[in-house]
Structure formats: structure tokens, C-alpha cells
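Changelog-linked ticket: beta-D-mannopyranose example.
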Amino acid sequence: MKSELLKRYPGNPILTHEDLPYNVNAIYNPGAVKFGDKYVLVPRVEDGKRDNYLHVAMSDDGIHFKVNPEPIEIPGPEEELIWEKHKYDPRVTHLEGAYYITYCAQTMTETTRMGMCRTTDFKTFERMPFITSPWSRNCALFPEKIGGRYARFERPMSGKDAITFLSYSPDLIHWGDWKPLNLQSETWMREKWGIGPTPIKTDKGWLQIIHGVWFACNVVYRLGAVMLDLEDPCKVIGQCPEFILTPREYYERVGEVPNVVFSNGAILEPCGELKVYYGAADTCIGLATCDVDDLIQACLDGIKPPEIISY
Ligand code: BMA
């Protein structure tokens, strides 16, 4: 490849702290979904105390977004809200007529588990029970049932041995039948990797964007892509050998956490353009696009499924 597959929108970054009417440290890592003829982002907003909230931002063209100044409120009992000192890394999934947001819910002492809420209008949000035990993150819900059950990816907190699992549920609340997703990780993502946005259905398989980390003298977060079997998504049918976006621009290199591009939101347009929204340096939001067929092909031409690894 001459350069990475994802191409930046020339007007990047598309959202910065200046897009909120009060003091904000950073706005980044948005979930993304199409809502009727609108584009919705659900970014992570870090306020002037560094508390993390989710907001709603809307757009007519997928490029120019207006951010609601009020954070999303997910009412609930005190003993649950204690888990949500911070909310971040949301994935938005359109499923059976509603929109589900899965997010990292973090206590003051940095224990993270997955929260989930449901909305049909992006104005009111209904809390659902916590869907993981503590020390879990990177949860992306599939946009449809697979083999009659709801499905999701999730990963324990961190570290070289943090395996991403596929799990299933009859009701979106009780999860089980965990299976590992085995990728070739001894490459640009050798330190750790995790799921990016909600899986995207294509006629050739599920397209899954991932993030990966290489640690040398410092960490660098990059984006990659894999194709997964439609009926058994922990079966990898191809992995793009190279990263598809790496920090290069000033706003990706310099910020709250330098050298980071991280995505948990993407939208596939009917014309085949894939819009990938990403947090840049944990500070602002960028947009990068590609033709989805090019990305699918790069995965299918790439690394073939690894041997079964036991776990
Ligand atoms: C990950 C996530 C992201 C963040 C990234 C880089 O662990 O928590 O929110 O962008 O680290 O700091």
C-alpha cells in the first residue's frame, strides 16, 4: 500500500473543545450512527474537572456537527450511579428499532465495567442493567441477532493477554457462551488490541474496525480492520496486515495523550463510503473515509485465519 487506506477529511478536526459553550478539556472517541436522515455522534466530553460525560452531537451531512451542551442523563439509583463517575468510549448500535449505547462506566478508583442504555430519540435514555462484571471494556453490540441470539464483543481491562471475546444473550442482559476472537497480534498491534466501532454488516462478512497498540519507548494507538464470518463472527476470514490509520497530523501527535487515533464510531453510506470518526490524541475528533470495498478486499487478501489458539 502506498499509504494508509483511510483518508482524512481535509477540514479535520471536525470537533474540538471550542464547540462547547463552556470550559472543556477534550472531546473525543465518539460512537456514531445514522438516525433517520441525521448523523449522530455520541462523543466523550471531559469537562474542566476532567469528569467524563457522554453528549449527543447531530449533523445533516456527517461532517458539521452541533454538540448538545447538556450531557446525556441516564437516571438510576445511587448505588448504580456510583459506577458512573466517568462514562466513556461509547458504541452506538441500531438494533430492532432502538438505539443502544454501551459505554465504559468507571468509578473514581478507575474500576471499569460496561454500562448500557437505550433510546429511540436521543433525548431520553433508559438505563439497562450493567452487562459485565468489573474490569471489562470495549463492548460492541451487533446490530442484529446471530443464530437467534443477541451478540457482542467485549474485552477484559488491559494487558498483553487481554483477549477479546464474542458472547451471546437471549435478552441483552444475561450473557454467556464466550468464544475468543483470535487475530494475528504479533505485528503493529503487538502490545494489545481491542474492538473499535459496532460491527458493520457487508455481503462478504462482518467488517470490524479495531485499534491496536505498539509500545516501544511510548505507546502509539492505530486503527486496523478485519473481516469476520457472518454466522460465526469469531471466525476470522481475513485481517488487513497493515494499519489503516496511524497518527501523523499535529492534532493526532500532540494532545492529552499523544500519538493516538482511536475509533468507536463508523457509518457506512449506501454509496459504499465508510466514514470513520476517531478521537485524535484524546483531545479532539477527526473524520477519515475510504471505499468500503477497498477495505474489505485488503482484509480478504491479507492475513488468513490463525490456527485455533486455546484459551
Ligand atoms: C484506551 C481508551 C481510549 C483512549 C486510549 C488512549 O484505553 O480508554 O479512550 O483513547 O486508551 O488513551
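Closing comment: Example verified and attached. The radius of gyration is 18 Å. The chain has one domain: 7-300.
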